[in-house]
Design brief:
This protein has 154 residues and is an alpha+beta fold. A hairpin with a 7-residue loop joins strand 2 and strand 3. The relative contact order is 0.17.
Length: 154
């Protein structure tokens, strides 16, 4: 039979530069959906999380539709490193500190939006127990740090 819309999205070529019409982050990038964009350049967009886990909670996303951290290869290490640099810059320029910050990616199947995004959260000390210990727990089954991801991709 004919694949459903959901199956078509799953069959999409990784790294599709045109994006995914059903992807909420692609819609934000295309300015078809409103978001509090705090930084953008030719490769990346950064906006505040709509359900912040702490005082500062930003999402750094590549304009290119990359599905999730598990779909990346060693060729994507520079993308991850640029995302981290942008996240740190956005955090510090908005009054956050890196000393009490948590940066990371959700690992499939614990990914709600299938468009690569780096969480930048601070201060960690202001996060609720569940967010700090379960949802955004560093290097757990559900959430990995950029350092872990880069080592995994090498």
């Amino acid at each position: 039979g004919v694949p459903s819309q959901r199956n078509m999205a799953e069959l999409q070529v990784e790294g599709d530069p045109e994006g995914d019409p059903s992807c909420i982050f692609c819609k934000i990038i295309a300015k078809e959906k409103e978001a509090n964009v705090v930084f953008e350049n030719s490769e990346f967009v950064c906006f505040t999380d709509h359900k912040p886990a702490s005082t500062h909670h930003y999402l750094v996303v590549p304009r290119q539709h990359l599905r999730d951290p598990k779909s990346l290869t060693s060729e994507h290490i520079p993308v991850v490193e640029k995302m981290v640099g942008i996240g740190k810059e956005v955090l510090t320029s908005n009054g956050g500190t890196l000393e009490d910050a948590r940066l990371g990616f959700h690992w499939p199947p614990f990914v709600l939006v299938r468009h690569l995004h780096l969480h930048v959260i601070a201060p960690t000390s202001a996060m609720g127990w569940f967010s700090r210990s379960v949802i955004f727990r560093e290097n757990s089954f559900a959430f990995v740090t950029p350092g872990w991801l880069v080592d995994h991709l090498k």
